[in-house]
Amino acid sequence: MTGDDRALSARRAKRMGAYYTDRSVAAFLVRWAVRNAGDHVLDPSFGDGVFLEAAGARITSLGGDAGRQVHGVELDPGAYRAAQGMLEQRGIQPGANLACGDFFDFAPGRRYDCVVGNPPFIRYQRFSGEGRKKALQCAAALGVPLPALSSSWAPFLVKSASHLVQGGRLAMVAPLELGHASYGQPVLHHLHRSFGRVTFLTFERRLFPALSEDTLLVLAEGYGSPSGEFRWLDLGGPESLARHASSDVLLDASQALETGAMLRGDRRLLHHLLDRDTLDLYTKLQRHSGTRRLRELADVGIGYVTGANDFFHLSPDAARRFAIDDRYLVRAVRRGKSLRGIVYTVADWSEGLDSEESGLLLRIPPGSSLTDGVAAYLERGVQAGIPDRYKCRIRQDWYAVPHVHEPRAFLTYMSGRVPRLVANQARAVATNSLHVLRALPGVSVNPEELALRWCTSLTWLSAELEGHPMGGGMLKLEPGEAGRVVLAPAPVSPHRMAPLVHLADALVRQGDFEGAARHVDLELLEMGLGLSREDCERLRAGAVRMQRRRCGGRVEGGNWREQVGWRGPRGESNEHEPPRRQERKGNLETRRKKELGTVTERNRQDAKVSAQ
To answer: Crossing angle for the helix pair 497-509 and 581-611, nearest 10 degrees?
Structure first.
């Protein structure tokens, strides 16, 4: 195969959602699923044939007839032909046992003891047309109505289970979305009512490094006789699967999950990475009368879509060169990297101009009269074919970018280390690479206060739990997920908010998120909610653990106190009784005065320098 052929094959595989499974993973799933010499096995999307190869070897070792008992379906003719030769060498013949076609048209007239495989991971944006319609209709016919935004794996998993005999086993790769996406809920319910036990295996290191998605393994047994038990086991990496001669021995270490809470959507799979005390504390704070969800304080939406960013965004120099009047221009944030602190200032906007993280948006309301400079610039756009682009073509006036709002604050959509909620002091607008927060009717919240309330360890942990990890260690927060994030109450003393905002902003700009959280925790969590310092450290340790897990790092040995450097009074460990409430209030007041006094002194020095 030439380099061009390989590139073409890779592009085709990506388009079809084909990410082929490591042989050790396929061997483990097959070893668990196939128990008897007479078992018939189906791989509904066999790709390069790795599952069929493993199934053939397993059945042969048990004394069965691999050529008769191994079955598969593959949509891609190229992959089908490529796998043929390898499978023929192992006695698995094309024809009756191997089909080239759409699995959603597959009607074999028989059922299988085991279904194994790795469904295609096609995002809903490319999972469209008649193919999606057919897949969703198939799932609905099996009693699992799925929303139109579902990815392809969801109906694929549902149909796969339908081909099992009573008591059969399903062993498949699935995206971690199963445990948190809204369209994953119907699939979880279907697994719950279809199988006696379902075990989820998750991994600290990704099974598919090239896939911008975390994955897990689903091992479902006892088809047709549900008992409603979900179990879970977290492993380091795929090499962990080969360390046990029997897959059942490995699964003996799994733990029972709160199945009811998962089915209600109150728990996600990754919540169980937290220790019981941290999870209980977080659950209690979710329900606390003093906390609020972000959606109760602000409307979370996406920024505007221009359809041609480079045309509609200009630098100040370009705006002057093309003689575009200021009334048609508004400051714009183009990338989340511009958000460096917890407030976004005009200075931040100016600093981002050179790197094109910020710019000026050409905003022309529909039906506006045009100056000569603007008309000439738009003519340049016509010559470049901008009006023919889809987003421009569907507008009344192709140049009038819709849904441009000046939000109270911005929120990062895809975040590396920590999601940022930033007060919009620059009066800028933002593209859809960011979320924009607007006021809710009847709700008055100061944007700086909102940004400060986002800075606690409680909110940091909540964002990790409500969002979902993506490739490269990124955390993605959809608007609905962001709306569920839990925020602490406002500062106990409003007049102390400004210096605390200044301090938190300075620390976040230095990259010291944990330092900012410690200071804000003191005011909002300890003074505001009555939490102990140990409670705050526990929340912060949980957030750090989730963050490291998402970013591919490993939390080394030791307990949570050691991980965050927690020390008790006089430097000893924390084996002490919590102080009485009155004593603790006095200690908190002293600590707060000391910390905020430092900020006040810094403000005085800044003012002195400015005056000089």
So the answer is: 70
Is the separation of the CB atoms in 191 and 153 below 8 Å?
Answer: no
Q: Which two tokens stand for residue 401?
A: 């970018």
What is the residue type of 112?
A: Y
Element (H, E) at 55: helix 50-62
CA pair distance 515, 492, nearest whole angstrom? 20
Backbone angles phi, psi at 605, to 5 degrees: -65, -40
Q: What's CA 52's distance to the chain center, in Å?
A: 32
Written as six digits, the tokens of 179 are 């445990």
Distance set, CA 436 to CA 299, 358, 429 (Å)? 8, 15, 8
DSSP structure class, residue 527: I
> Strand 468-469 vs strand 343-344: parallel, antiparallel, or unpaired?
unpaired
| Alpha carbon distance 537, 329 (integer Å) | 46
pLDDT tens digits for range 200-220: 999 888 777 666 567 899 999
Mean pLDDT of the chain: 84
Backbone φ and ψ of 496, nearest 5° = -90, -5
Q: Which pLDDT does position 5 carry in this prediction? A: 40
End-to-end Cα distance, the chain: 72
475: closest CA among 546, 435, 549, 415? Answer: 415
Give the number of residues written for the chain.
Answer: 612
Q: Could you tell me which residues are beta bridge partners of residue 235?
A: 203
- What is the C-alpha to C-alpha distance for residues 480 and 484, in angstroms, rounded to an integer? 7
| Angstrom distance (rounded) from CA 419 to CA 467 | 10
Alpha-carbon distances of 23 from 44, 156, 238, 239, rounded to whole Å: 17, 22, 10, 11
* Strand blocks (E) in 8-66: 41-43
Regions of the chain where pLDDT drops below 50: 1-19, 124-125, 554-585, 595-596, 598-612
CA atoms of 557 and 56, how far apart (whole Å): 41
Residue 424, classed as helix, strand or coil, is strand
Sheet of 414-415, strands arranged across: 414-415, 475-476, 468-469
Distance (Å) of CA 385 to CA 344, 389, 598? 35, 7, 57
Q: Over 182-193, what HEC string results?
A: CCHHHHHHHHHH
Residue 314, strand partner residues:
360
> Looking at residue 21, what is its pLDDT?
64
Contact 528, 491 (CB under 8 A): yes
Q: Name residue, tokens 């976040």.
A: 508
Give the residue among 32, 57, 53, 28 at the shortest CA–CA distance from 43.
53
- The CB density around residue 90, as the number of other CB atoms within 10 Å, is 17
Sign of CA dihedral 81, 83, 88, 91: negative
What is the Cα–Cα distance from 510 to 552, expressed in whole angstroms? 23
* Distance of alpha carbon 284 from alpha carbon 346, whole angstroms: 40
Place of tokens 């005999």: 165
Between β-strands 429-430 and 329-333, what pairing exists: parallel, antiparallel or unpaired?
Answer: parallel
What totals of helices (H) and strands (E) does the chain contain, helices first? Answer: 25, 23
Using alpha carbons, select from 207, 128, 145, 125 the residue that is nearest to residue 172.
Answer: 207
Residue 305 CA to residue 403 CA, distance in Å, equals 8
Question: What does the alpha-carbon distance between residue 535 and residue 517 come to, in Å, rounded to a whole number?
Answer: 13
